[in-house]
Amino acid sequence: MSERGTQLAVGERRGMRYGLGLLAWIVGALWIFPFAWTAFTSFKNEQDAQAQTLHHGLSFGRYSEVSHSTTGTLSLATAFTNSLVIVLVSTLIVLALAVPAAYALAIRQVPKWRDVLFFFISTKFLPVVASIFPIYVYAEKWNLIGTRQVLIILYIAMNLPLAIWMTRSFFMEVPRELIEAAEIDGTSLINQLRQVILPLAAPGIAATALLCLIFAWNEYFYAIQLNFANASTMPQWVLGNVSTRGNFLAKLSAASTIACLPVILAGWAAQKRMIRGLSMGAIK
Amino acid sequence: MATVEYDAATRLYPGTSTPAVNQLNLAIADGELLVLVGPSGSGKSTALRMLAGLEPLDGGRILIGDQDVSGVRPRNRDVAMVFQNYALYPNLEVAQNMGFALRQQGIAKEERNQRVREVAKLLDLEPYLDRKPRNLSGGQRQRVAMGRAIVRHPQVFLMDEPLSNLDAKLRVQTRTELVELQHRLAATTVYVTHDQVEAMTMGDRVAVLRDGYLQQCDTPAILYHAPANLFVAGFIGSPAMNTLAVARTGPVEIAGTRIGVDDDLGGDRTVVGFRPEAVVVGSGSIAARIRVVEDLGSEVFVHVLIDHSGEERRLVARAEPPFPGQAGDSVQLGLRGAVHLFDEAEVRRATVTL
Q: Chain B within 8 Å of A191 (Cβ-Cβ)?
């Protein structure tokens, strides 16, 4: 009773600590299991993959099979290029639009900024499946089916609300006095953004860009609906490895792993910056 | 350098019913250091920001030189501001911080560097020119903020409590340096503070604000010896002036004793005030009891209690060291010096010297 002050908290008692640590490892392993299993399967041959055995050893064979395209189907090179272009262009345009929007919602707030913010988020309320019909009709009308442009436009619309919300919150972290000082020092609006606000918000903008890249890269529904089978993005290409003839699990695993890799690598490279960006300003 | 004028300047924040700054009339001479002082919410910072252009005017005008700048954007007013939190650009080095405004004006690199170096020398910042603000102490950051303003040679310097974030000793030291600098540059400066000591020691003139209204604008000496009203009398000077409610007519009585002041302002008199140095402890006819003795070394402040009109009232007296009395002692008080008489509207109407 008199030792209450020196008693360790729940998480600090040694036994508990090991227990929680073990639990964390188990949860982590469970989390990564689907992807780890997929990657592992991709090195097996088809028989092993189907039967979930390991008789024939591991090799990179599936990867080379999957990378070679057969005429009439979507090749890895085409899909990758399409994805890359679409994702980069749409993210750049999203940022170019989100920054001025965030300025108007954070730094020099327009009178109805709350309503504006809600409007942006409200565009995400509509399920994609509900909107696909009118989108398809107009895409066909304007000869946009099977083009990169249509996906770029749609991904911009898809990512813009998120980008505006995130960028706005990072802009809110910039001290008001800094902007006032820049104003008094004779800085024009563009230079305020370039020289004062953006350098400070850079980690946050990087985090936003990364999220937009990831969401665009992984997007599947529009890509499938608005493109022909032989001209689409990575998600479509992955699906192209589902074959009606024979076993395909190993090849599919290889394709999935290839499709995930860029995103994982980008996230890995930028993780510090992302964490910093996402928690920026949390501690004042 | 230029003159500054507030002409019935008013600022009313949307959604509020009382103006933050109410019909302010102030004329600041070229090269003058004018201090805006007042308690929180008095409108002093708002008035400064109106001059900077960071707050719009809801009435009246503001002139810099002879130009009406009421509708002019901050960056076109040629004013420089030192913020309370310094507002240094964190991603730029000291030299870049100081040269920032010059760069915006398109001044060539050579001239920019030269001007920055000059000011850095003036402020002892030369060793820190390539450091980032986060690697500087508070005092150094404050000087960089000043340097950033000085390098611009603006028409007016604006300072919003620039010393508030410094520790007490550094504040006192920087205070005098600042005044010297201002004289040397002959720069028109508007300086905001809530600290009346700062106001009194720094200002050529001091403008006392309360709830958006200007109470009085005069030299420190006049403010001290001839306050316009009870608020100024109580705000300026530390310890604060002693004030007692007295009878409207007849001779002034303190603790039942006549003190020799007979003026009753035609029946309007309600309050008398006298500063601690006007209270003499040890000789006089007012009975008092010592509560606390504050010995500051160079002077002693004696806090006493008197029985005034049936109520216990506290007074502060100033005495020369060494002071023999102790808490609990009974003493006699007398008045010698200025005694101010205030009327019902809290205006000072007369001063008698005893």
A: yes
Judged by DSSP in three states, B320 sits in: coil
How does pLDDT run across A11-44, given as a tens digit for each residue? 567 778 888 999 999 999 999 999 999 888 888 8
- Which residue(s) pair with A263 in the sheet? none
Residue A264, CB half-sphere, CA atoms under 13 Å: how many? Answer: 9
Distance CA A205, CA A211 (A): 10
Q: Whole-angstrom Cα distance, residue B233 to residue B241?
A: 6
The nearest alpha carbon in chain A to B54 belongs to: A180
Q: Is A3 on the interface with B (CB under 8 A)?
A: no
Distance CA B230, CA B234 (A): 6
A73-121 pLDDT per residue, tens: 778 888 888 899 999 999 999 999 999 999 999 988 888 899 999 999 8
Tell me which residue has tokens 């009246």. Answer: B60
DSSP 8-class letter at A59: -
Q: Does domain B239-353 have CATH number 2.40.50.140?
A: yes
- Whether B4-230 shares its CATH topology with B239-353 is answered no
Q: Indicate if ipTM > 0.90.
A: no
Place of tokens 């022909």: A228
**d(Cα B61, Cα B84) in Å, to the nearest integer?**
26
- Please tell me which of the candidates A175, A187, A200 has its beta carbon nearest to residue B75: A187
Strands (E) located in chain A: none
Q: Which residues does A201 contact at the CB level (< 8 Å), separation at least 6?
A: A167, A170, A171, A173, A174
The answer as to CATH 3.40.50.300 being correct for domain B4-230 is yes
Structure token pair of residue A48: 């092993």
> What is the per-residue DSSP string for A136-194?
HHHHHHTT-TT-HHHHHHHHHHHHHHHHHHHHHHHHHTS-HHHHHHHHHTT--HHHIII
Shortest distance, CA B89 to any CA of chain A (angstroms): 7
Q: Are B258 and B222 in contact (CB under 8 A)?
A: no
B101 contacts chain A (CB < 8 A): yes
CB within 8 Å: A183 and B90: no
Beta bridge partners, B229, equal: B347
Tell me the domain boundaries of chain B: 4-230, 239-353
pLDDT at residue A231, as a whole number = 64
Task: Kindly give the pairing relationship between strand B189-193 and strand B156-160.
Answer: parallel
Contact with chain B for residue A181, Cβ under 8 A: yes
pLDDT beneath 70, residues of chain B: 1
Q: What's the gap in Å between the CA of A266 and the closest CA on chain B?
A: 26
The dihedral sign for the CA sequence B190, B194, B200, B206: positive
| CB of A178 less than 8 A from some CB of B | yes
Distances (CA, A) of B160 to B45, B48, B80, B93: 7, 7, 11, 23
Cα torsion A216, A218, A223, A228 to 10°: value is 130
DSSP 8-state assignment for residue B351: E
- CA-closest candidate to residue A220, choices A256, A274, A268: A256
This prediction has a pTM of 0.82
